[in-house]
C-alpha cells in the first residue's frame, strides 16, 4: 500500500525530472499539497474523497494568511485555486500510476473575477524609459534593463538569467522560459543600443549581464560583481517610476503588460503575442484584449449616436 506522503514525494520528483518544472514551482506545489495532507490527517489515496475535498475547501475559504491576519481578510479565490490546481495535478499523477483515488475532474476551481491589468499611460512609459539619463555605469545598466523589459516582454527571472556574452549582432534572442521551453524574443533598436552602451562601459569579468554596481555589490570586488536578482530588478524599476513622478505601483511585470498591450493595440495577432510572451495557454494572453481592441473603439466612434432626423 502506497502512503500519500510517499506518493507526494514521487510526484514532486516527477515534476522536477520528467516535467522539468522549476525548483520554485516544485516548492509551491509541495507547500499546497502539505496543507491539504495535513488537513486530511489520513495517508491512503482512497481517503481523498468528494467530502474530504469539500471540507478542505470550506476550511481554506476561511483562512487568513500573511498580511491579511491583522485585517481578517480571507484568502482570495485566485489564491485558493492555486491549492486546488496542485491537488488536481497530484490526482492526475496518481491516476496515471493506476492508483485508486478521487478523479481529478471532480475538483472544480472557484469562480474568479476577471483579472485587472496594472497599466501605465504611454506618457508615463516614456518618462520611465527616459529616467536613467546619466552616463554612470548604474544609469546605463538601468536604462538597458528598462528598454529590454519593454522591448521583449521578458519575465524578471528570464532577464536575470541573461549572460554578458549576449549576441547583439542581430535583433533576436533565444530565451529559456517556464518549464525549460525555448522561445525567441526581439530587441528594438533602442534596447540593442542601450545594452551595447552598458556593456561597452563594463570593466569586470562577471558572467551575468546585469550586475550589482558600487555600494550594491556586497563582495567589494570590482572585477567580480554579483548578479542582479529579482528583488533588485524590482527595486530598480520602482526607483525610476517614483523618479518619473508615476504614482501607480510599477513593477517589471507592468512592463510585460505594456509590451503585450502595445503589440495588440497596434494590430498584432493574439497567437503571435502568446508565443512572444511564452504563454502555454492562449487564454492567459486573452486578458489583454479587452483593453487593446482599437477596432471596437473605432466602430463606437463611427456609429454611436449618429441619429438622422
UniProtKB/TrEMBL annotation:
GO terms for molecular function: DNA binding. CDD domains: INT_XerDC_C. Keywords: DNA integration, DNA recombination, DNA-binding. Residues 115-301 form the Tyr recombinase domain. Pfam families: Phage_int_SAM_1, Phage_integrase. InterPro entries: CB, DNA_brk_join_enz, Integrase-like_cat_sf, Integrase_catalytic, Integrase_recombinase_N, Integrase_SAM-like_N, Tyrosine_recombinase_XerCD. Coiled coil: none annotated. One of its GO terms (biological process) is DNA integration. Belongs to the 'phage' integrase family. NCBIfam families: recomb_XerA_Arch. This is Tyrosine recombinase XerC. It comes from Candidatus Zambryskibacteria bacterium CG11_big_fil_rev_8_21_14_0_20_40_24.
Amino acid at each position: 500500500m502506497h502512503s500519500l506522503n510517499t506518493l507526494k514525494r514521487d510526484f514532486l520528483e516527477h515534476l522536477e525530472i520528467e516535467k522539468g518544472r522549476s525548483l520554485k514551482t516544485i516548492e509551491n506545489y509541495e507547500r499546497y499539497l502539505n496543507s491539504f495532507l495535513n488537513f486530511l490527517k489520513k495517508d491512503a489515496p482512497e481517503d481523498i474523497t468528494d467530502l474530504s475535498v469539500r471540507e478542505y475547501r470550506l476550511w481554506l475559504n476561511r483562512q487568513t494568511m500573511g498580511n491579511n491576519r491583522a485585517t481578517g481578510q480571507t484568502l482570495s479565490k485566485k489564491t485558493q485555486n492555486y491549492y486546488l490546481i496542485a491537488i488536481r495535478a497530484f490526482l492526475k499523477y496518481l491516476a496515471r500510476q493506476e492508483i485508486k483515488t478521487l478523479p481529478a475532474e471532480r475538483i472544480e476551481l472557484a469562480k474568479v473575477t476577471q483579472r485587472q491589468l496594472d497599466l501605465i499611460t504611454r506618457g508615463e512609459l516614456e518618462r520611465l524609459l527616459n529616467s536613467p539619463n546619466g552616463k554612470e555605469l548604474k544609469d546605463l545598466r538601468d536604462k538597458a534593463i528598462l528598454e529590454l523589459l519593454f522591448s521583449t516582454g521578458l519575465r524578471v527571472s528570464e532577464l536575470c538569467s541573461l549572460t554578458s556574452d549576449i549576441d547583439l549582432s542581430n535583433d533576436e534572442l533565444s530565451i529559456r522560459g517556464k518549464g525549460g521551453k525555448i522561445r525567441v524574443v526581439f530587441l528594438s533598436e533602442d534596447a540593442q543600443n542601450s545594452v551595447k552602451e552598458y556593456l561597452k562601459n563594463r570593466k569586470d569579468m562577471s558572467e551575468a549581464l546585469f550586475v550589482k554596481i558600487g555600494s550594491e555589490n556586497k563582495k567589494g570586488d570590482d572585477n567580480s560583481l554579483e548578479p542582479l536578482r529579482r528583488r533588485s530588478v524590482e527595486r530598480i524599476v520602482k526607483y525610476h517610476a517614483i523618479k518619473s513622478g508615476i504614482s501607480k505601483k510599477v513593477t517589471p511585470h507592468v512592463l510585460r503588460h505594456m509590451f503585450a498591450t502595445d503589440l495588440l493595440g497596434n494590430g498584432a495577432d493574439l497567437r503571435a503575442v502568446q508565443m512572444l510572451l511564452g504563454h502555454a495557454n492562449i487564454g492567459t494572453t486573452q486578458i489583454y484584449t479587452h483593453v487593446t481592441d482599437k477596432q471596437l473603439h473605432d466602430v463606437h466612434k463611427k456609429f454611436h449616436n449618429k441619429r438622422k432626423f
